[in-house]
Every structure is written in C-alpha cells, then in structure tokens.
Amino acid sequence: MDSTEFRKRGMEMVEYICNYLETLNERRVTPSVEPGYLRHLLPTEAPQEPEDWDQIMRDVEDKIMPGVTHWQHPRFHAYFPAGNSFPSILGDMLGDGIGCIGFSWAASPACTELETIVLDWLGKAIGLPDHFLALKEGSTGGGVIQTSASECVLVTMLAARAQALKRLKAQHPFVEEGHLLSKLMAYCSKEAHSCVEKAAMICFVKLRILEPDDDASLRGQTIYEAMEEDELQGLVPFFVSTTLGTTGSCAFDNLPEIGKQLQRFPGVWLHVDAAYAGNSFICPELKPLLKGIEYADSFNTNANKWLLTNFDCSTLWVRDRIRLTSALVVDPLYLKHGYSDAAIDYRHWGVPLSRRFRSLKLWFVLRSYGISGLQHYIRHHIKLAKRFEELVLKDKRFEICNQVKLGLVCFRLKGSDKLNEKLLSIINESGKLHMVPASVGDRYIIRFCAVAQNATAEDIDYAWDIIVDFANELLEKEQH
Ligand code: PLP
C-alpha cells in the first residue's frame, strides 16, 4: 500500500469506524457464536499472494464482527468501561505512524519526555502528593505508563521484594537468598483483584488474603494483627496491596487506617490499586476517597478504563523511582547512551524493553477534553449509576448490594444465588444487555456499570426495563 492508497483507505476506515460506533445499537451486544466459529470461516494458512483490500474489509463485516463483543455498545454494562474516544484513537494512530520504540530517552526523546510530563499533569489533577511527580523540585518519584494494572502491581511487588531481600541480606549475610525469599509475606484483601495473587505467584512470595469488613473494605486492625502474627512466626511482611474501587463492588479499603498501622512496620511497601476509581479523583468532590495516599509508596489507575483513553494506558506513580528501577535495571552496552545519568530511561521502570508512544493518546485526550470535560464525563456516569440505583430501589423485589459511590451498581433479586444466576444468564443470552456477576461477601451479585461514553438517561431506563421484563418472566416461571 502506498501513501496515495493509504490516504484513500484511511478515510474509508474512519468512515467505517464512525458508522460502526453510530449504529452499534442495531447489533447484539454479545455475539452468538460457539468456540472455534472463526476457524470454520477462515483459511488454515496465510495467503501466498496479496489480497484485495475491499475483500478484506468485507470479511471484517461478515466474519470478524459476528464474533465481536461490543464494549462501546450503549447496552454493555459489564466489567468496567473500556476507554475510547476519537482524540485517543487519533493519538494512537499518530503514535503508530511515528512508529518509534521509546525504551530509553535516546531512543526517542519526545516519547520519554511527553510521558513524564503527562503523568505529572494527570498525577496533579488526581491530587497525588508532590513526591509522586517527576518534575517537582526535590521529588524522588515519578509516573510511567504500563500495559495493565496487573503489570503495575507486579512491578511494584518486584521492587518491594528486591528492597526487602536487600535488607534481609544485610542482616543475614550468610543465609541463602532462597531461604530469605521463603520468609517474605505480601498482603491484600479478599476483594483485591486476582492480579495480586498472580503477581505473588510470579514473584515466588507468600500472599496472605485477608477478610474485609461488611462493606468489603480492608481495615487497619486486620492488617496489623495479620502482620504481627506473621512476624511472631518468623515471617517478614514486605508488601501490602490495597484497593480503592474494588472490581467486585467498587468498595474502598480503609487507606488512612492501613497507612497508619504500617508505620509500625518500617520498610513495608504500600501499594494502592485504583484501576477504575482512581480516574474519578480528578473531580474535587471525590478527592476524599483518596485519603491516606500520603502513606503510599505507589499508586495506579487505568486511564484506559475510565478516562476516555484507549487500551493500553495504565498509569503508575511511585514515591521513589530508584527503589522501583533498582529491581529492574539490566544495562547492556548496546542500550547505554550519553545521557543515561541525566534522563529517564523507561525500560528500567517495567518488564518490556520496547515501548509504544502511549503518552500521545493521553496527551490528546487531556488537551481535547480538558480536565473540566473529563470531570463532566465522570460525573455523568455517576449520575447514570445513581439513576439506575433509584430504579432498583423502587422495585421491592430487588436489593442494592453496594454503596454506589461511582459508576457501578451491584444489585440482585431478593432470593437465592441460583435465582440470580438464572436471571443474569437469560439476560445475557438474549444479547440485548450485557452484565457480569461477582461474588461479594460470598453472595452472588449482578454488576451494572455505566460504560458508554455518551450513554443517556433513556439508555439506563431502557436497560432497567429489559431487566424487569426478564425478572417478571423468570419469577412467573418459578411460581409454577
Ligand atoms: N485492579 C482492579 C481494581 C481492577 O478492577 C482490574 C480490572 O478490572 C485490574 C486490577 C486488572 O486490570 P488490568 O486488566 O489492567 O490488568
């Protein structure tokens, strides 16, 4: 494809994307296909000869789209939002066009410097303390874009592990490192995302999963008692992962309490995973949810969830960048450059070497919407969630199962878990609406999240009508 054809096909692609997004509500939300469906529609080998572009696009519509779950559909209410917006798509397109691989400052200075600057912008807007900002006088911290929240948790745990092992080795110089490793204990709540468990598996450390309170919030006393008990057993607490806005029910761990208790265990790394909720802290009225952040060593939120930025764009800030990078530095000669001491090399801040120009899309989003536009978007979703909550509360057959602080409402039919499983299953099978369940406090709940960027009050009412129709049908069947 030459640039003349790229211009033509590029315009067509923009047209295709616009049509797709504008007519989404004519499609089923979820596909009705069985595993392996695509294998029967596509050849078993790549074409030997070039194929016609129009034919490829026809196959997109006829073969690929029938297997797509439409996350931007106005009736998609599962998981959390998948960030998407035109400025972000265009920013990503430009990044792809530039096609640089910014693993070090020298590999593409703008790629590194823009990332540092936009992470400072966003960190300030969220209300992170100054020590998390790279360009603040005297700060030792800074921000970086990772692929996912899971990676943020993993790299902070790796850094905490390296710090803890260094300390232990200094105290016990003749003890083998493998033995010291076997003593390390990480902590999180039962409501933490499963990525904490995965990180502990990769780091080869023990993880103690603690019971939260009745509001699904992990409390300071629980952490304190667990750590004290473990220390008495000869174990070494080294890392705590807290969550602001849990995946199941958007609950908030009690960060001020936990932070205070951790003062009694110097050297323990406190991480805050706010993958979804963290974006909302750009609104002044929601900043109280961030209370306790002054105790944290690191904080992550996914702009690619709730800040109109396409995947991938998971933002991580650390209090002390040397503590992060010292766990990850490997410095072969072919990657060294003349400014290694003076500039940031993001390859030391994460697992991969190669890095996309991801800050461009975030920069386009922050500039095109402004913080005020993004606040409006967040508040709009919260308003929609509140509207949904009111509808649920009006129908006495249902109950609300979480404190609706942001865009997620958890609800269920008053009745057994089985009944609620059936309800969700018939709704999802219909393809009219998509939600997912969670287990909170060992109860099966249905999660309804405000997701589509421009969702309206009518969309929420319509979704509720669908839920009520299926509930009526199910309850009637159950009576006979
Ligand atoms: N942490 C929390 C609180 C989440 O809600 C999620 C996903 O929803 C994750 C971590 C995992 O995010 P990612 O897919 O970016 O790894």
TrEMBL record:
Give the N6-(pyridoxal phosphate)lysine positions (modified residues): 305
- Answer yes or no on keyword Lyase: yes
Sorted alphabetically, the Gene Ontology BP terms of this entry are:
amino acid metabolic process; behavioral response to cocaine; carboxylic acid metabolic process; egg-laying behavior; locomotor rhythm
Q: Which cofactor does it need?
A: pyridoxal 5'-phosphate
**Keywords of this protein's UniProt record, alphabetized?**
Decarboxylase, Lyase, Pyridoxal phosphate
Please provide, alphabetically and separated by semicolons, the GO molecular function terms listed in this UniProt record: carboxy-lyase activity; pyridoxal phosphate binding
Question: Under the cellular component aspect of Gene Ontology, which terms does the record hold?
Answer: cytoplasm
Q: Any keyword Lyase?
A: yes
Protein family: Belongs to the group II decarboxylase family.
- Name-wise, this protein is GM20861
Q: Which organism is it from?
A: Drosophila sechellia
Q: Which residues of the full protein are shown?
A: 1 to 480 of 638
